[in-house]
Amino acid sequence: MDRRSFIKTLGATGGTALVGKRLRAENSSGADEPVGVLVDTTRCIGCRTCEEACAEAHGLPVPEDLDEDIEGVVRTTSEKQWTVVNAFTVDDEEIYVKRQCMHCNQPACASACLVKAMYKTEEGPVIWREDRCMGCRYCMISCPFDVPKFEYNSTVPRIQKCTMCWERQQKGEIPACVENCPEEALTFGKRRDLLEIARRRIYNEPDKYVHHIYGEHEAGGTGYLYLASVPFEKLGFKTDVGTTPYPELTKEFLYSVPVVLLLWPAFLLALSNATKREDDHERKIREIINEVGNE
Amino acid sequence: MNNNTNISSPGGFRGVLRFVLSELKPKGKMLTLFNVISLPVMILGAALLVVRFTRGLGSITNLSQDFPWGLWIGFDVVTGVAFAGGAYVLTFMVYILRSEKYHPIVRVTILNGLLAYIFYAGALLLDLGRPWNVINPIIGKSFGVSSVLFLVAWHFLLYMLSELIEFSPAIAEWLGMKRLRKILSAMTLGAVIFGITLSTLHQSGLGALYLMAKGKIHPLWYSEFIPILFFVSSIFAGLSMVIVEGSISHKVFSDRLSVRLKRSHDDILIGLSRICAGTMFVYLFLKILVFIHGQHWSLIDTPMGYWFLLEVIGFVLVPCIVFLYAVRKRNLPAVRIAAVMALIGIILNRLNVSVIAFKWNAPLHYVPSWMEIEVTLAIICAEIWVFRWIVNRMPVLNDPPAWARSRTNGEIKNVPRQKKEVLQPWDT
To answer: Which residues of A touch B210 (CB under 8 A)?
Structure first.
């Protein structure tokens, strides 16, 4: 048994006794395979219908710059816009990339949230629950993709981000962006199936695609998966997120918590008792002196 | 001066109430330099907070989607809590190791710690977008137990309680409640043990908050050892704060100081310096280990690298050496200089992790607005006002009333050193 597994065992035993659920790190593997969206950037024509459909589906202001040229400006999602399409020119070819929440398998935001307002549903989408959130914005610090946005100019601020149309999915509908994409650049389905589709496309047209599915392993795997014809770093993708799920980064610290909570007080009490003896001894002597003196 | 030694007959609840009301009145001069400066600062701060709560956080802060945490978290909370670390270190030395030398300053340190937590937790509330939901993780509407922030929030709350218990005998002495004091004093050791455990976890927990900001914090500051570095540095940060605060209190509240504290003050400062030098050496060693482990040699010759060197050499290594020098020469001015430098080093380190080296390469980096700084100053002023009010009334720096001194039940020991030595059975 190595050190790490020893600490984990110790933590697990101590933890169940002390804090119950604390150690159960956010695990999304529900009974069903989670859903996701496959984005094939080779098919996207940059029409930005998805932006419009998203705004309409969620009561957000419809972007006013829909007709403007987006070339050369890297835009980010905002508290008023959950998805944006960016244009990149690589080798004289214009490539469009849709951006939104990646819906990680093990989301940093959800494990960071101390009230489970950020929540990974069993079905796959990561949603935000208004009645719980206290507005601490730790989700924004943690998210490797900088997705959650905060309404700084509101007295009742909300966190705004793509929910993969969770409400629509509840009604059996598919996400608005997927439904409205005219080029079938977006595919909605079970994540496992999407990976199969993506692999098949790469296999069938090996020269068209780079042999990498962004999101298959990034940050421990994400619900949104991307195919592209050029390396992803040229399309503004974060390639430094690694393959470890982000909650793992704090797991070891959290495992050590019950260990400290159990061992520290015992150690301190023992130390305190060890230093106490002399005092007690002195007091006894003093009592004896007093008794002798009274006689 | 010392009108709070005892209320001969408490006269029940109404008597206590009348006494508290009479104590609420200000004492001493009103027109002091500190008052003249701090009052407008606090009033302006309050006005800004009205704006903040009626127009949202964006109205007075420079926070943005890229920089969700600014000065109020990075300085008020993350740095402030490190500065408040003196309380758990001193209670460890006095109640666990039973080092009597530091007993005279333990109460004032606990009070400082308690107030720091109350005001910094308060600052946290200002920063929350939806503060009315702050009770959710406490009432259990939902326990986000996989969150480091959940741990930190609970520990803040519980630690404030244990510090209140540690300090409560002083309140009981002030109110002249003898039986209550006895009960509260009996709880001290338990609260101390609990408090040290909580402090270990949340001092490191504040660092662990940033573990998930991997890739956003400059590699010279990000490592998986942030929690350990935060914990070790909180020891000398807290003690340096005790040295600085103690030196100021020694002058400002000289009429409140007990004879014992007056006599031992210099020895205490030298002793604390020794501990500071030791822990700073350990911290420096850890920093070097982490640096070598991270293999970031190439980053040193960059602007961020120079900034890193300034923090580690200028404000850790140098104050460590000055502390050592001060201890050897018993040089009190050097002690104070070293303590102030160490505090600056902590401010630099905490702000680097939380603000400056956070998204260091962003085109538009966050810089706090003057209003954020103003509110921070107002919070500090308010804390000093409350501190002054308590020190001028309760037995914090001065000796407890005679009735509380008669029995030594672990709280306040008044057997002078010399007497102890002659206590031998054959002395009769």
So the answer is: 141
Asked if the Cβ–Cβ distance from A115 to B141 is below 8 Å, we say yes
Are B400 and B172 spatial neighbours (Cβ–Cβ below 8 Å)? no
pLDDT at A266: 94
pLDDT at residue B26 tops 80: no
pLDDT of residue B413: 46
Interface list for A 170-229 with B (CB within 8 A): none
Which pLDDT tens digit goes with each residue over B309-334?
999 999 999 999 999 999 999 999 99
Assign A138 to helix, strand or coil: helix
- Residue A120 CA to residue A245 CA, distance in Å, equals 14
Q: What is the 3-state secondary structure (H, E, C) of B93-113?
A: HHHHCCCHHHHHHHHHHHHHH
Domain ranges (residues) in chain B? 32-398
**Chain B residue at shortest CA distance from A254:** B148
The DSSP secondary-structure symbol of A207 reads T
Report the pLDDT averaged over residues A25-51.
Answer: 80
Q: Which residue of B has its CA nearest to A15?
A: B145
A274: β partners: none
Q: Is A16 on the interface with B (CB under 8 A)?
A: no
Region B267-271: what's the mean pLDDT? Answer: 94
**CA separation, residue A20 to residues A17, A63, A107, B423 (Å):** 6, 46, 21, 52
User: Do A227 and A40 touch, CB atoms closer than 8 A?
Assistant: yes
Average pLDDT, chain B: 88
How many A/B residue pairs have CB atoms within 8 Å?
187
CATH class of the B32-398 domain in this structure: mainly alpha
Q: How far is A75 from chain B (nearest CA, A)?
A: 13
The answer to whether B234 and B85 have CB atoms below 8 angstroms apart is: yes
3-state class of A222 per DSSP?
strand
pLDDT for A281 equals 64
pLDDT in tens, A50-106: 999 999 999 999 887 777 777 778 889 999 999 999 999 998 899 999 999 999 999
Please tell me if residue B51 touches chain A, with a CB cutoff of 8 Å: no
B285 CB burial (10 A radius; 0-12, 13-18, 19+): exposed
Closest to A214 measured CA to CA, from A145, A140, A111: A145
The pair of structure tokens assigned to B152 is 């930190």
Residue bearing the bigger pLDDT, B419 or B32: B32
Q: B93 and chain A: CB distance < 8 Å anywhere?
A: no
